Amino acid sequence: MVNKKLNLETTYLAGGCYWGLENLIGQISGVKETVVGFSGGFISDVTYKDVSIGNTGHAETIMIKFDKNHLSFESLLFEFFKLHNPTTPNQQGNDIGTQYRSSIFYTSNSQKTIAKAVIKKVGESNHWKAKIVTEIIAFNKFFPAEEAHQKYLKKNPDGYTCHFKRNFIFL
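Request: output the structure for the sequence above.
Response:
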C-alpha cells in the first residue's frame, strides 16, 4: 500500500450561516478540516455575539483545508455554489445581514484567478436566475468562533440550517 502525502491547501469561504455550510462542506471528499469563524471585517478578536449585531464588517466564514491530490480548488468552489444562494446580497434564507454575505477570501493569485473563472461559469450556467453577487476578496485575518459553534450540526442534529445541496452541473 502506498501512503501518499497530503497536499493541503487552505481557503476561506462565506455563504450565510456557517453551521449548515460547514456541515455540508465537511462531507466533500478531499476536505480534511473545517473551522467556523469570522473574516473580512475591521474588528479584531470578534465573537459570535459581536458579529451577530452586524456592524463588524465580518462574514460568518469557514476555514477549509483540503487535499489538492483529491479535490481541486475549482471543484471545491463548484460545490460551494451548490450549497448556498450566491445571488442574494447579505442574505441566506431567513438570515439577513452583512455577516451572511457570499464571499471567497482568496489566499493566492491562483485562487483569485480560479474564483473569477468559476463565478463566470456559474453565472453562465443559468441555474441561478439572478446575478452572482459573491465577492472575491484577498484574505486578511480569520478569527475562529467559540467552541460551541464548531461542528454545530453534529452536536445539534436538529439545529437550524438554511443550506442544502442542489443538483446543479456547472461544467
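The chain has one domain: 8-155.
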